[in-house]
């Protein structure tokens, strides 16, 4: 089976490419950025912008499956128009080209962020869509573009996947949390009673592999999340357990929002990534917890790696890096 993976140099993309290659499939890895490390043996690397048809058209030829991960996400220096062009406007040309090339299954990667913060926990695929920031709004609009294409898709099957917080070794957000907790510098904003729902990268890759070419998943939307959701306080507690660190500073949310707004304004002027922002504070406020029954029942999705074990794997990988500080 030949599989094209877009966004192949992102954290999730690299893991998906490696997982598919390990299973013996032919993989083409498409990304705007060149690979930081040598790709797995046999993987074909293509550099191209998903917004530029001429840069990826040849890469799609011969593909049986497309796993579409490419998106504008956390880049501070991107204008708003780049989010709409990448996450929405590029989709129809890409879907049409995939169908014309004989692709059998197109997996579009969205995000649970399209639900915003849930009014009721746990949510599921049918929970109201209420995106709050630009990324979430464009991912929702991207889903709508895919849904509009569904009547024209056959014989190609199309599936939408909404990942929860995918983490693992190499995920910058998780590594920042663990590092800050280990050094006693993690700031806990508010009471930490909101819910978060992480999924370890290996469980995520396995879930995507399980639905490949499954005709009963065509036209369906699935949330992929881990075996359990936790409060943000429990997640920080897991980080403390794994690293041996301690959260020593707790700050009211109101102060955090004021500080986040100020830092955002300064960083916007200098073109830097803010160390704290209103978006990062969503970790302590958003309700993101999901029922994954649909994926369990329809293609056997069974995530098994809990957050303590997952954090331990990330922490161990951090400690093995050359020059890593020992805690």
**Secondary structure tally, helices:** 11
Proportion of residues in β-strands: 15-25%
Rg estimate, integer Å: 20 Å
Please give the largest β-sheet. 7 strands, parallel
Shape: globular
Poorly predicted runs of 5 or more residues: none
Compute the average pLDDT.
90
Question: Structural class of the secondary elements?
Answer: alpha/beta
Report the end-to-end length measured between terminal Cα atoms.
Answer: 45 Å
Number of strands: 13
Quick recap:
With 327 residues, the chain is α/β, with parallel strands linked by helices. It has helices spanning 11-22, 53-60, 80-89, 91-100, 134-149, 172-182, 201-211, 232-243, 253-270, 293-299, 307-320; strands spanning 2-6, 26-31, 44-47, 65-68, 105-109, 157-163, 165-167, 187-189, 195-196, 198-200, 221-224, 230-231, 249-251.
Describe the 3D structure.
This protein is an alpha/beta fold and 327 residues long. It is 39% helix and 16% strand. The protein has eleven helices and 13 strands. The protein has helices at 11-22, 53-60, 80-89, 91-100, 134-149, 172-182, 201-211, 232-243, 253-270, 293-299, 307-320, and strands at residues 2-6, 26-31, 44-47, 65-68, 105-109, 157-163, 165-167, 187-189, 195-196, 198-200, 221-224, 230-231, 249-251. The strands form four sheets. The chain has a seven-stranded parallel β-sheet with strand order 3-2-1-4-5-6-11, sandwiched between helices. Strands 7-10 form a two-stranded parallel ribbon. Helix 5 (134-149) links the parallel strand 5 and strand 6. The protein is globular and about 55 Å long. The model has no long low-confidence stretch (mean pLDDT 90).
């Amino acid at each position: 089976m030949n599989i094209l993976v877009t966004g192949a140099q992102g954290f999730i993309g690299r893991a998906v490419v490696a997982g598919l290659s390990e299973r013996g499939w032919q993989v083409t890895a498409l990304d705007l950025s060149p690979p930081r490390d040598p790709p797995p043996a046999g993987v074909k690397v293509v550099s191209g912008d998903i917004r530029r048809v001429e840069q990826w058209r040849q890469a799609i030829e011969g593909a049986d499956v497309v796993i579409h991960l490419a998106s504008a996400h956390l880049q501070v220096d991107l204008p708003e128009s780049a989010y709409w062009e990448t996450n929405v406007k590029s989709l129809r040309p890409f879907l049409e080209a995939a169908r014309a090339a004989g692709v059998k299954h197109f997996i579009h990667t969205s995000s649970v962020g399209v639900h915003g913060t849930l009014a009721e926990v746990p949510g599921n695929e049918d929970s109201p869509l209420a995106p709050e920031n630009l990324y979430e709004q464009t991912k929702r609009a991207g889903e709508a573009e895919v849904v509009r294409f569904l009547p024209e898709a056959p014989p190609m099957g199309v599936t939408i996947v909404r990942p929860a917080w995918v983490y693992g070794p190499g995920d910058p957000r998780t590594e920042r949390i663990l590092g800050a907790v280990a050094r006693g510098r993690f700031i806990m904003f508010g009471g930490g009673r909101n819910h978060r729902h992480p999924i370890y990268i290996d469980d995520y890759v396995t879930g995507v592999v399980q639905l490949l070419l499954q005709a009963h998943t065509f036209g369906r939307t699935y949330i992929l999340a881990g075996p359990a959701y936790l409060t943000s306080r429990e997640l920080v507690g897991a980080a403390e357990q794994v690293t041996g660190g301690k959260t020593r500073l707790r700050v009211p949310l109101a102060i955090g929002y004021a500080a986040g707004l100020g830092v955002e304004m300064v960083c916007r002027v200098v073109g830097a990534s803010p160390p704290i922002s209103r978006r990062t504070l969503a970790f302590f406020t958003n309700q993101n917890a999901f029922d994954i029954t649909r994926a369990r029942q329809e293609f056997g999705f069974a995530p098994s790696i809990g957050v303590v074990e997952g954090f331990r794997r990330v922490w161990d990988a951090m400690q093995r890096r050359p020059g890593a500080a020992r805690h």
